[in-house]
Amino acid sequence: MLDEGQLTDPSDQALLHIMCALGAKFYALDWSESFSPLSKELIQSAGMQWAKIAEEMFFADYSTISITKLKVLILLHDQEARTGNYAGSFLLTGLVIRMAHALQLNNEVSADIMCREEGGSPNEASVRESRRRLMWACYMIDVWAGSGVDHLTILNEKDLKIQLPCNERQFSLQIPVVTERLQEGDIIDFIPAEDIPEKPKENLGMAAYYVRIVSIWRRVLR
Questions:
Q1: 155-194 pLDDT per residue, tens
Q2: Measuring CA to CA, how many Å separate 36 from each of 25, 28, 79?
Q3: DSSP 9-59
Q4: What are the angstrom distances between the C-alpha of 91 and each of 49, 122, 141, 177, 203?
Q5: Residues 6 or more apart whose Cβ sits within 8 Å of residue 191
Q6: DSSP 3-state helix, strand, coil percentages of the chain (rounded to 5)?
Q7: Whole-model pTM above 0.85?
């Protein structure tokens, strides 16, 4: 699609470039382990040109805010960390969190958690779950950057008024469900009682428990 000029939006182009850049490292690592050994330097440098293009595309218009651009920024942060540019990844953390705030990802889109309202998109459940997962990715980036030091952290956990990620089966099948918030046993307060399952914890996925582990790690460091 990129070679044939089918991607006209710079944000979409940047997202594809940074995905390819990160994928190239895993491809090189797999090649090294399965076919012919490659040097550590070559594996680490795989995809760097694509990452540079994605970075240039993003910063050419960084003040324009969108979900796609936040995805690009999160993956650029991942790229910097994987290549050892920790100063670069630390600085990108600020942009990640501010863009998430501007998009208001720390709040649920609406009180209609079960996606019953008319007029929504056919994949409304997936869209909303993707927004939540994007916000939790931002949260974890912030925690890693802060390492338990409050003045290095931008996000406040009490402002995360969204539920944790659901399990992968429900996400893949686009099944809207109620899960818990960051604190165990805590449910979003505006959800009607009839929509709350007997055991909402059972709807949590591995990503949700990973978020909770990161939160515990943050408190331990403090």
A1: 999 999 999 999 999 999 999 999 999 999 999 999 988 8
A2: 15, 10, 24
A3: SHHHHHHHHHHHHHHHHHHHHHHHHHTS---HHHHHHTTHHHHHHHHHHHH
A4: 21, 37, 11, 35, 35
A5: 111, 113, 178
A6: 60, 0, 40
A7: yes
